[in-house]
Amino acid sequence: MKNIRLLLFSLASFFVQDTFAQSKINRKVLVERHTVVVNKIDTLASLSVGNGGFAFTTDVTGLQTFPDFYAKGISLGTQSVWGWHRYPNTENYKVEETLKEINSHGRKVPYAVQASNSERAKAANNFLRQNPHRLQLGNLGFELFKKDGSKVNPQDLTNIHQTLNAYTGEITSQFLVEGVPVKVITVAHQQKDLISVKVQSELLKTGQLKYRLRFPYPTNQFTDEGNNWKNADKHQSSVVIASEKSFVFKHQLNDTEYFVKIESNQDSKVLQSEAHYFVLSPDTKESTLEFSVMFSEKISKESIPNFTNTLLSTKTAWKTFWSNGAAVDFAGSTDPRAKELERRIILSQYLTKIQCANNEPPQETGLTYNSWFGKPHLEMHWWHGVHFALWNRTDLLEKSMSWYKKVSPEARIIAERQGFEGVRWQKMTDPDGKEAPSSVGAYLLWQQPHFITFAELAYRKHQNKATLEKYKELVFKTAEFMASYAYFDPEKGRYILGKGVIPAQERFKPEDTFNPTYELAYWQWALSTAQIWRERSGLKRNEKWDDVLKKLSPLPVQDGVYLATENATDSYTNPVFLTDHPSVLGTFGMLPESKMLDKKIMQDTFDKIWKVWHWDDTWGWDFPMVAMTATRLNQPEKAIDALMMDIRTNTYLPNGHNFQDARLRLYLPGNGGLLAAVAMMCGGYDGCKTINPGIPKNGKWKVRWEGFKKMY
Predict the structure, then answer these.
(1) How is 386-433 classified by DSSP, letter by letter?
(2) Cα dist from 401 to 384, 386, 445, 635, whole Å
(3) DSSP code at position 170
(4) Please, are residues 200 and 266 in contact by the beta-carbon 8 Å criterion?
(5) How many angstroms separate the CA atoms of 569 and 567, rounded?
(6) Which residues of 272-288 are buried (b: 16+ CB within 10 A; e: fewer)?
(7) According to the model, what pLDDT value does residue 15 have?
(8) Is 378 helix (H, G, I), strand (E, B) or coil?
(9) Quick count: other Cβ atoms within 10 Å of Cβ 294?
(10) Which residues share a beta bridge with 45?
(11) Choosing a second label site near 138 at 20 to 30 A (CA), which of 181, 411, 524, 553?
């Protein structure tokens, strides 16, 4: 009888697994039940449209009418992948002026840090961090007037009702001005850096509704919120082509120039009210106006897509996006957190698609406003990109992978300067791969294996020779650095990572730190994977890599738990070390089980961290990372608890953005991390035989999913 029950249970499990894998989800219904609705002015509820390499963020009017009012919320940005600017390097600052040497195993290794040993060094550091910086390309807003001729302020708008339909990529904005309705539809073209707008209002007939294009100047600060109207004499703006329905504007900043083309279905006039401020007045007796605005590096003399064509472009592309790849549906769940988790999942897919799916690694605030001067941080590319592959959209990850080949010469320079082989991937960088000096970033290691991760995910999608040929060179160069960086200590008979390292948990001094747990495990996984790539390519295993793998230091343990680093014996007693990223959990979460790992010790480490960590001092991707570890440890309740932990940095705004603090009002690594964790929690990982391993089996969760790729 017992054997019969086991057989029936096995058959039932097989049937359920097949149902999860094969059942069809109505994706339009799924996405549209999370249509964003904004019924009041909320500076943290700004909505965006975009195509992956270009994004345009609106206030409640559907354009960028109140940029100063929204500046400290989700700013009203217009940014692109190509839109960068640098100030002239009149003082000839060089990265060599920022170098600081660290003593590591008997030799001095130079790192590009935020040097402060002289005023010249400080100035060089500031210039190299600030340049180049990503541009805010322009502010496009309405000019709204009351009957008495005065300008409309935010508080003058009434009956606000704005929606974002992520299934079609449409923002629809409705409001009243002195009782007169205004309706605006805003969409972004999916192949061009262009938005199109349709306006319906009687205010067009009376001349009370016009629109403007205004060019801000770069702030030269950590952020750039697109509303610096000062420094008018330092840049130039002009109309270079004009006709009744079409205008081309040129914006020049030092050696940077770009163009904005506006085409309307109505005759219009342009008035320059002040420097860099252009008002377009439709000459119409109609109550409907349509216009398109394209931003480009080169001047366009051809007609640009109108509203109808742009609407078709966005609807077609978004339907394709949502119809392909993975999906998860929690309808019918009784856990009160299920609906909110589903909302976060849907909106995170939308946001990462419009902000992070382009041919360069994104910055942490995407294409909305600058953080760290608009520069990408390569350690964050894991969180920005891995989820695309797990959601069966590997092509969106691969878009940015070709960039690594472009910047590999700069990565080779860093490795050579420090006396290592291969390429050492940058941390804080720019489109050309230049290294920005940083007192933390220069010492980070965990971005180094990422390219091997990306290449392996690409190969899992396309297991062919073409994929091997496309990525193997950089896989091998990445591994060459990793093997040469590992120092063999003849007295201990093992390889050591560091000194001169700051782990992913950025709380340790580089002069003292060696053998961080997560990085050791990542070294082991990545070098092992690189050897597999050699074998797939018909090459012999690399003897040096095998020696490092054989003799790599074990994961440091004390009192039955893994330490953050081998030298930090006070990992769980020093309050400083109980903040920031609990990255030791990435050892078995972001990474799979290995011979280095003891699952019992990892379980005890997880329990310890869950109990003692200062969760108020963490970042948005920490919660998904913890959920991934909980999933591998077969603790699905904890996985959900981690994802939905009530902590400020785990807040998801009405528009889906992951809020951190007053400086980082949006944080896309949190969105990407959420998606990566959910993919593993539903789709599992290599060797996992549990259905929905990260979802509680308490009867409160009803889960249907399709299309996920297993995590390694």
Answers:
(1) HHHHHTT-HHHHHHHHHHHHHHHHHHHHHHHHTT-SS----SB--TT-
(2) 12, 12, 19, 34
(3) E
(4) no
(5) 6
(6) eeeebbbbbbbebeebe
(7) 39
(8) helix
(9) 21
(10) none
(11) 181
pLDDT tens-digit map of 500-518 = 999 999 999 999 999 999 9
Instruction: Give the Cβ contact number of residue 568 at 10 Å.
Output: 25
Whether the CA torsion 628, 631, 633, 639 is positive or negative: it is: positive
Question: What distance lies between CA 408 and its chain's CA centroid?
Answer: 21
Q: How far is CA 326 from the centre of its chain?
A: 19
Nearest to 47 by CA among 34, 36, 32, 33: 36
- pLDDT band for position 4 (50/70/90)? very low
At 504, list the tokens: 């992913």
As a whole number, the mean pLDDT across the chain is 95
Q: Rounded CA gap, 424 and 433, in Å?
A: 11
User: Please, what sign has the CA dihedral across residues 63, 66, 67, 72?
Assistant: negative
CA atoms within 13 A on the CB side of 710: 15
Q: Give the tens place of pLDDT for each residue, 594-652.
A: 999 999 999 999 999 999 999 999 999 999 999 999 999 999 999 999 999 999 999 99
The average pLDDT across 121-131 equals 95
Half-sphere exposure of residue 328: CA atoms within 13 angstroms, side-chain side = 33
Question: Can you state the angle between helices 668-683 and 636-643, rounded to 10 degrees?
Answer: 160
Mean pLDDT of 659-685: 98
Structure tokens at 256: 């940077």
The pTM of this model reads 0.96
Residue 124 makes CB contacts below 8 A (sequence gap 6+) with 91, 93, 94, 97, 98, 115, 437
Which backbone phi and psi does 582 adopt, to 5 degrees? Answer: -80, 65
Give, as one character, the DSSP assignment of residue 235. S
Predicted local confidence at residue 13, as pLDDT: 42
Q: How far apart are CA 226 and CA 224, in angstroms?
A: 6
The amino acid present at 491, given as its one-letter code, is: E
H helix or E strand, kind and range, residue 50: strand 47-50
pLDDT digits (tens, 9 = 90+) for 430-445: 999 999 999 999 999 9
| Residue 17 scores a pLDDT above 50 | no
Other beta carbons less than 10 A from residue 37's beta carbon: 11
Q: Which residue's entry shows tokens 């040497």?
A: 101
d(CA 293, CA 455): 37
Provide the 3-class DSSP secondary structure of residue 300. Answer: coil
In this structure, the dihedral spanned by the alpha carbons of residues 496, 501, 503 and 507, taken in order and rounded to 10 degrees, is 130
CB neighbours of 567 closer than 8 A, spacing ≥ 6?
512, 513, 514, 515
Contact 328, 311 (CB under 8 A): no
Give the span between the Cα atoms of 40 and 73, in whole angstroms: 14
